[in-house]
């Protein structure tokens, strides 16, 4: 800038040849440090968008046991590298790259000012007049800069506009498809009483074993389970509906990880379980997960008993070790011992993992744009994004049952 103003000559700004390479290395390192802020901000934005169901699931690596926001996303890091190389190789001109960069910066400033209007009104609880004055004061100046930068759209400024429009379309379609999928699951969730009442009419039989049915809706029965028993009228003697939650803490204590609830009558064999993990917890040991879950179910069954002795789990469980200090509690503890004994017997028969393999489709009466958004784009994203349940727990394929079902949204 000073050279353009004539304050310094070109010779005074030129790097001597003797120190050219050291200066070149330092300048490159400074560029890397400066770009790291943008890279870290991108990781944080992607993580927040995933929490709001506005971005497909990607692998997030938490690099700190204390700072929740210190993350690394390998896929996004590679995409950023490819975009940087594409821009550098494609434009090959610092002026064109500068036009694209300036338009991106001023657009971010103008959007931030518009969002500040919402922050002032909803978060700070200030008057709408004050928020409007702030937006008009700063937004008018930034709008003038934005209109001036729009003249460079044909000279490199088109790239950030096209890229932002592409990312916005992906986020909007993913959010719309995910929200429609969740609405379908809530609207088509069934009650356990209706399943039990129709068991005799449908000829449903109970087979030995335990089934862990994974659901994305805590406290409800997923549509894929009713779809399964409709086409295959049989299910295990003990059914546990499992919902996984990832908390914003590094590790969850084992005693607080499982929240067991009874679903339906006590003798029906149906349970609900919410499993809470921290972002640094190991989740790839399915055998240990199974042992801890079933032990918590046994503890839930024994909770109504007045007094119990220690239970050794899982191989040397002695149900007869339950102490009966008084005759008044004996009649209540006998069914409890039988339920725990039944749980152990069914565990020896085998444990199966049931997950849903859903396919979201639009209705036949949907518009052309909805067909493109749901059937093509959203379907493509779901087929290529990470499978959350099987990846998080490392479920064994030999015991995994995937139930295919089509959601017409």
Set out the fold topology.
Blueprint: H1 2-5, H2 10-13, H3 20-51, E1 61-62, E2 71-72, H4 74-91, H5 94-123, H6 128-149, H7 158-187, H8 192-197, H9 199-202, E3 205-214, H10 223-231, E4 234-246, E5 258-262, E6 270-277, H11 286-302, H12 330-349, E7 351-361, H13 368-384, H14 388-393, E8 400-408
Parallel strand pairs: 3-4, 3-7, 4-6, 7-8
Antiparallel strand pairs: 1-2, 5-6
Domain K+ potassium transporter C-terminal: 208-408
Membrane topology: Multi-pass membrane protein
Family: Belongs to the HAK/KUP transporter (TC 2.A.72.3) family.
Short description:
It is a multi-pass membrane protein. This protein has helices at residues 2-5, 10-13, 20-51, 74-91, 94-123, 128-149, 158-187, 192-197, 199-202, 223-231, 286-302, 330-349, 368-384, 388-393; strands at residues 61-62, 71-72, 205-214, 234-246, 258-262, 270-277, 351-361, 400-408.
Low-confidence segments, ≥5 residues, pLDDT <50? 306-313, 315-328
Strand tally is: 8
Structural class: alpha/beta
- Spatial strand sequence of the major β-sheet: 5-6-4-3-7-8
The shape is elongated
- Helix coverage percent: 40-55%
Largest sheet: 6 strands, mixed
Number of helices: 14
What is the rounded Rg?
Answer: 29 Å
The count of domains is 2
**How far apart lie the N and C ends?**
57 Å
Rounded mean pLDDT score: 84
How much β-strand is present in the residues? 5-15%
Q: What is the ordering of alpha helices and beta strands?
A: HHHEEHHHHHHEHEEEHHEHHE
Subcellular location: Membrane
Membrane topology: Multi-pass membrane protein
InterPro entries: K+_transporter (IPR003855), K_trans_C (IPR053952), K_trans_N (IPR053951)
Keywords: Ion transport, Membrane, Potassium, Potassium transport, Transmembrane, Transmembrane helix, Transport
């Amino acid at each position: 800038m000073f050279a353009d103003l004539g304050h310094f000559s070109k010779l005074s700004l030129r790097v001597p040849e003797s120190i050219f390479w050291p200066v070149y290395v330092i300048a490159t390192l400074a560029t890397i440090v400066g770009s790291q802020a943008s890279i870290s901000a991108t990781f944080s934005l992607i993580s927040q968008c995933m929490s709001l169901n506005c971005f497909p699931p990607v692998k997030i690596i938490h690099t700190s046991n204390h700072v929740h926001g210190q993350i690394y996303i390998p896929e996004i890091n590679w995409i950023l590298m490819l975009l940087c190389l594409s821009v550098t190789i494609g434009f090959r001109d610092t002026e064109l790259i500068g036009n694209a960069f300036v338009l991106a910066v001023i657009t971010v400033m103008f959007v931030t000012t518009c969002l500040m209007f919402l922050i002032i009104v909803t978060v700070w609880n200030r008057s709408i007049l004050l928020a409007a004055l702030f937006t008009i004061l700063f937004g008018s100046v930034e709008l003038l800069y934005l209109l001036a930068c729009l003249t460079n759209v044909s000279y490199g400024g088109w790239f950030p506009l096209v890229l932002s429009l592409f990312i916005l379309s992906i986020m909007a379609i993913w959010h719309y498809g995910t929200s429609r999928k969740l609405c379908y699951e809530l609207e088509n969730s069934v009650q356990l009483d209706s399943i039990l009442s129709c068991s005799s009419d449908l000829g449903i039989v109970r087979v030995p074993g335990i089934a862990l049915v994974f659901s994305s809706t805590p406290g409800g029965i997923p549509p894929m389970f009713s779809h399964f028993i409709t086409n295959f009228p049989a299910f295990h003697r003990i059914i546990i509906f499992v919902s996984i939650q990832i908390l914003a803490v590094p590790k969850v204590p084992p005693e607080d990880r499982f929240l067991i609830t009874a679903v339906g009558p006590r003798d029906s064999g149906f349970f609900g379980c919410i499993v809470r993990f921290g972002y640094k917890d190991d989740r790839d040991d399915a055998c240990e997960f199974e042992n801890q879950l079933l032990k918590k179910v046994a503890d839930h069954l024994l909770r109504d008993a007045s007094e119990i002795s220690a239970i050794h789990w899982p191989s040397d469980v002695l149900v007869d070790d339950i102490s009966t200090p008084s005759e008044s509690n004996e009649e209540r503890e006998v069914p409890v011992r039988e339920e725990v004994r039944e749980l152990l017997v069914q565990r020896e028969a085998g444990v199966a993992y049931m997950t849903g393999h859903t396919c979201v489709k639009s209705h036949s009466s949907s518009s052309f744009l909805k067909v493109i958004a749901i059937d093509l784009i959203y379907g493509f994203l779901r087929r290529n994004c990470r499978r959350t349940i099987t990846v998080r727990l490392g479920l064994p394929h030999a015991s995994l049952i995937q139930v295919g079902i089509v959601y017409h949204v």
